[in-house]
Amino acid sequence: MVIDCHGHYTTAPKQLQAFRDGQVAGLSDPEKPPPVLSAISDDELRESVQPQLQFQSDRGTDVTIFSPRASVMGHHIGDARTSLAWTRHCNDLIHRVCELFPNNFVGVCQLPQTPSAPLANCLDELRRCVEQLGFIGCNVNPDPSGGMWTAKPLTDRFWYPFYEVLVELDVPAMVHVSGTCNPNFHTTGSHYINADVTAFMQFITGDLFRDFPTLRMIVPHGGGAAPYHWGRYRGLAQDNKRPPLDEMMRGNVFFDTCVYHQAGIDLLLKVVPVDNILFGSEMVGAVRSIDPTTGFYFDDTKRYIDAAAISDADKQKIFEGNSRKVFPRFRAA
Amino acid sequence: MVIDCHGHYTTAPKQLQAFRDGQVAGLSDPEKPPPVLSAISDDELRESVQPQLQFQSDRGTDVTIFSPRASVMGHHIGDARTSLAWTRHCNDLIHRVCELFPNNFVGVCQLPQTPSAPLANCLDELRRCVEQLGFIGCNVNPDPSGGMWTAKPLTDRFWYPFYEVLVELDVPAMVHVSGTCNPNFHTTGSHYINADVTAFMQFITGDLFRDFPTLRMIVPHGGGAAPYHWGRYRGLAQDNKRPPLDEMMRGNVFFDTCVYHQAGIDLLLKVVPVDNILFGSEMVGAVRSIDPTTGFYFDDTKRYIDAAAISDADKQKIFEGNSRKVFPRFRAA
Questions:
Q1: In degrees, to the nearest 5, what angle opens at C-alpha B268 toward C-alphas B263 and B271?
Q2: CB distance B232–A200 less than 8 Å?
Q3: Beta-carbon separation of A198 and B204 below 8 A
Q4: Which residue from A50, A162, A250, B2 has the fewest beta carbons nearer than 10 Å?
């Protein structure tokens, strides 16, 4: 079985965006009544995920761990009520897709984060998604300000109530920012990668996994820059008298394989312990075209793993075994 | 000849830091007279760069393109006067070291940037360093706020007067942030790398080199995450109908080799055109210890190039030829 641990619902029916547009319009006009999500039929949902199903079939993957479109989580827009209403709709649609295609999709939720409210208001939605909707994990935004980086580091006690619930529910979190409103950053080109680098360095210097030995965090996009700068990070850990990287990561930090060329994947597989790598494609996501040098989609990451010089046993870990460990609720789902 | 394009004066005599401490203390106490830099003798300067000279000799490098310690440029501290006084002292010391060891060091300046003032006040110092002190380039901080990212993108017209002077003087700029005051970021572990990624993505989406065809920008630390995510960046350029990366970079964007392990350097050399790679070590810098897996210093990057499977002609370009092209004033200096 090939489990893609990183897929977003980037192809949702247009009613969802219309609802969001209504929300955003309402922010500047408090007289407006809150928008209502127009009905979306099951057929519309089925139609909307045809691209994903086609890619699964074409590429030979089986199940996608599926979450709302990350770039439009937009935690910096509006306030806690805005974020909660938007998040619930996004998560509910993921749930409906998973119900319609239980063999193809398993749900991961977005959280109703907001820079203006405590984290506590995310916990109910997390519980609802896991306990009632059968979701197996969540995406957590380390920068709900959308590129201003005003939140506390992920290793700060601010986040601990959230980690307590993750541990209790036995679900992992993927560290995933959303769209940026800071013109310095490009959402998928620099903000995403920077957030991965930032989180990984926080994990190196903090004591998060001493305090939560069973907490599991996924750093997407192949761990940002970490594998490329593996010597730098090994050296910084050593210079700062922190645990070696493989020890720090062991049961706690995982990278996906959202790296869109063979040489990058080869480096990832060479330096990062195989037990810490989960197959992922970010499909349908950041890069949607075909690589003219290969003739295949950039984000067809399964091809790179297939072609890599590692054992079949290691490939099985990356494609399936590791995700089953990191997402223990996968089986039940 | 082996030219190290990226070295910082991290070992300056303690009088320099004492001056800075006085400056910082004065910010909260306007009654205090501005600090004065205590005299530093030539012997003290000679002594202070012995580590660099020893590393040059041990590692087989010849000349270091030498700039003030990047992490303490601290453009977010104080105002334009603070930054100018501090910058001039830092640059003057670089100049004195270069005068004392003209075969070992060539100067690159820091700029008196500050978030609170226009860029115009950097131009005089840039001219002074290049025209009077014989410097051959500068470091430009894309985020003088120190981790708040409040400045304009490097492709914004805000920076154009600065680029006009770079072009006129025919000197390149290295994109190099300083220490961060945002607790989310670790200065050398994430803030530096994030800035590289951010700048590179700005170059992909902007029209900077259409407007300044001879402008040369160096993205340090091996180009941040760019080589590891080369497929992502090629794909983003293509999806956004931007020029291919090699075309965009050709005579304008260069990466150094500050990547502290063999597999990372091998990836860099594999995907990035050899004409766009300059040898650099960041020595004595971010990582100061010995890699226990090799027995050599992490930042002894010459070893990785020596061991790489590329031709001698390509190595010569990386070690010397490319830097001579990017820094045409190198010869005169």
A1: 120
A2: no
A3: no
A4: A50
